[in-house]
Write a structure and sequence with these properties.
- By secondary structure, this protein is of the alpha/beta class.
- Among the domains are: about 120 residues, Nucleic acid-binding proteins (OB fold (Dihydrolipoamide Acetyltransferase, E2P), Beta Barrel); about 150 residues, Rossmann fold (3-Layer(aba) Sandwich); about 50 residues, no CATH class.
- It has a 5-stranded mixed β-barrel.
Length: about 475
């Protein structure tokens, strides 16, 4: 074909061809990847289809629901499913293929089947439950031992949620006067941020798990769509792997989420969770009181039995004790006499010991003094000799320094044939400080000279001559 067409004409050909090839309406299964409502009330979507791995996208297309139709379909879908149209949701929609020369290919949605989405959500929920069971983790948190006195509580909730306020007020205002220590890890409990927020909160608590007895996940009432976020596999899996018991009070009387199923305890409302914790402490207190009563009763019986045994034994032991005391008294008398005799003997021997020690000490002192006197005399002589040698050596060094200084005196240096050249009273060290025709002074050993510079050479042999 050699005929030339404009871009608009080509677009028209494409549009007409599509209308002729696809004249019907089609029911399409797709997932919403983007959804935007503009100021005019139109709903713009991007629909995708993923591979079975649910990661890679295999198809993508734009779609639109015009405002007059969108108002009806939105209310119809939410009433039927309890779920809002949102990103990540699978839907079955009735569409017509449309092609526009400016906006390209898109689908115009005229109807939506909520039954398909309800089935998809239920199927996804069952898939999550089955996956957790196959991995053998479904009941792991339930198997953790629940604390006898749960008083240190980490709370995952939104601080502005009514359910959180109800929980705190119920817990703090308990009629028993029990004290509970609570820490709130705040996060969003509805919308697309729910999953990541709850997981992040669990991770923070896990880093300091030794500070808590258990974790409570609570929120107030809400729509069915808000509850669906707690059917997340990732949230449920994190709870199954958590080192502390988890209690949920998500706030739905009719439905139970996957998160509720895997938790150690699941109650309907935040207030019910607070009552459960208070009752747990009260039951433990009653148990302790019962044990205390049993111990007191048993102790009294044991004391009474042993009291009777002591009284009976006392009657039997009294005569025997008298006999034993008499024998011990005789034994003690003999030991006292023996000790007195031994003491006299040691006292007599001890009288000779000080005199002997005095003689030995006097002899030792004299020997020690004589030895130290000899050492002291020898050290004094050595010190004297060392001092004389040190002074003589330093006198020789000082004489050498004096001779060296005499050699370096200016008059002695000049006497050896050296001279000192200066200009304007400043001694010259190089030719760079004088110019041609400058008047310079030369100091000799006998007299001085004045000279005019006619020529000068630098250190590298450069030469400069004056004008004649």
């Amino acid at each position: 074909m050699t005929e030339k067409v404009s871009l608009t004409e080509l677009q028209m050909i494409i549009r007409d061809s599509l209308y002729l090839a696809l004249p019907d309406m089609y029911w399409v299964i797709a997932e919403i990847s983007e959804l935007k409502e503009n100021y005019a009330g139109h709903c713009y979507l991007e629909l995708i289809e993923k591979h079975p791995d649910e990661k890679n996208v295999r198809a993508r297309i734009k779609a639109i629901i015009w405002s007059n139709r969108y108002r009806f379909l939105k209310a119809f879908f939410e009433n039927a499913t309890g779920e809002s149209l949102r990103e990540g949701l699978k839907i079955l929609v009735k569409t017509k293929v449309e092609y526009h020369e400016l906006y390209g290919l898109s689908l115009v949605i005229s109807d939506i089947d909520p039954a398909f989405t309800i089935g998809e959500m239920a199927m996804k929920r069952q898939f999550v439950i089955k996956r957790l069971e196959q991995e053998g983790v479904f009941s792991m948190n339930k198997e953790l031992k629940f604390p006898s006195v749960p008083q240190r509580i980490a709370i995952i909730s939104s601080k502005n949620a009514a359910g959180y306020s109800d929980f705190i007020n119920q817990l703090k205002g308990n009629s028993f006067g029990y004290v509970f220590y609570t820490v709130l890890i705040e996060t969003s409990m509805q919308g697309t941020e729910t999953e990541q927020g709850v997981i992040s909160a669990l991770d923070k608590i896990a880093l300091n798990s030794q500070l808590f007895d258990l974790v409570v996940i609570i929120r107030g009432g809400g729509s069915q769509s808000d509850l669906n976020w707690f059917d997340s596999y990732n949230i449920a899996y994190h709870i199954t792997q958590f080192p502390l018991p988890v209690i949920t009070g998500i706030g739905h009387d009719k439905d139970i989420s996957v998160t509720d199923m895997v938790a150690n305890r699941s109650l309907k409302t935040p207030t019910a969770v607070a009552d459960f914790l208070i009752d747990s402490v009260a039951n433990e207190e009653n148990h302790i009181i019962e044990i205390s009563s049993e111990i007191i009763g048993s102790s009294r019986i044991i004391i009474e039995k042993n009291r009777n045994r002591i009284e009976t034994s006392g009657v039997k032991l009294f005569p025997l004790a008298r006999i034993m005391m008499s024998d011990i008294k005789d034994l003690l008398s003999g030991k006292i006499i023996e000790i007195i005799n031994i003491g006299k003997e040691y006292t007599l021997k001890a009288g000779f010991i000080p005199a002997n020690q005095e003689l030995r000490l006097s002899s030792s002192v004299k020997s020690f003094s004589s030895a130290k006197e000899v050492v002291l005399t020898r050290n004094c002589q050595n010190l004297y000799n060392s001092t004389i040698n040190f002074l003589n050596m330093n006198n020789l060094r000082l004489t050498g320094f004096i001779n060296t200084l005499n050699l370096l005196k200016p008059e002695n240096v000049l006497q050896r044939g050296y001279s000192v050249t200066s200009i304007n009273g400043r001694i010259l060290k190089g030719s760079d400080r004088v110019k041609i025709d400058d008047l310079i002074d030369t100091q000799l050993y006998e007299g001085t000279l004045k000279s005019i510079v006619l020529e000068k050479k630098g250190r590298v042999g450069e030469e400069e001559k004056g004008r004649k």
